[in-house]
Amino acid sequence: MVKAAAKTTASATPSAERRAALAGQTVSATGVALAVLPPAERISLRAPEASVAALSKALGVTLPTKPKTSASKAGRTALWLGPDEWLVIDEAGKDPLADCAKVTALHSAVGISHRNVAFSVTGPAAAAAINGGCPQDLSLEVFPVGAASRTILGKSEIVLLRSGPDAFRVECWRSFSDYVFTLLSEAASDAAA
User: Fold this and answer.
1) Residue environment code for 130-160, b if the CB has 16+ CB neighbours within 10 A, otherwise e
2) What is the pLDDT of residue 16?
3) Which of 74, 45, 44 is nearest to 60 (CA)?
4) Which of 75, 78, 107, 146 could form a disulfide with 47 if both were Cys (CB 3.0 to 4.6 A apart)?
5) Domain 25-39+115-193 grouped into CATH 3.30.1360.120
6) What is the DSSP string of 23-47?
7) Where in the chain are the domains?
């Protein structure tokens, strides 16, 4: 009798499944669309200048060394966040942390895939919607395609990437994702008006 109960308990063990924050949510307004992007692999990378070449080779993308720049190759994007700091995003399903583990040059790579959530903001009013909560100049002349920066949106820190003339990627911490999505939704409605 005890063995039967144990079998029943073992087979009824619930499994935990991680759900993406705000999965499937979208907002469309005249001139702007907002969507939650699929999960991606991400690392926070810190390294001195002497290690950049070895890390770039291992990652398959040249780490940018100029402020507010990014580089992309084969579904992997590296965003310059500081003189020795990058956010590396892989949307191709490969693990940048594993690639960095093979490098013997001095560096620190930390997996932050589950910490961040990303949104796409697209359309002719995309910059206006983001500027509803972000003080950064998003004109194409000042913030061209490929530009990236750590900035704020309302009261939340974000990482912003301009992926096209009318397209942006907004990265934020998962714990702020509802706030950021709601702020961008309201700003998209205002930009459309």
Assistant:
1) bbbbbebebeeeebeebbbbbbebbebebbb
2) 65
3) 74
4) 107
5) yes
6) TT-EEEETTEEEEEPPP-EEEEEE-
7) 25-39+115-193, 41-112
Give the pLDDT of residue 22.
74
Mean pLDDT by runs of 10 across the 193 residues of the chain is 48 65 76 94 98 98 98 97 97 96 97 95 96 96 98 97 98 95 92 72
Through-space distance between the first and last CA atoms of the chain, rounded to whole angstroms? 69
Q: Give whole-number Cα distances, 114 to 21, 63, 84, 96, 103, in Å.
A: 10, 22, 23, 14, 23
161 by DSSP, 3-state: which?
strand
CATH 3.40.250.10, applies to 41-112 = no
Please state the pTM of the whole predicted model. Answer: 0.86
Q: What is the pLDDT of residue 20?
A: 66
What does DSSP assign to residue 58?
H
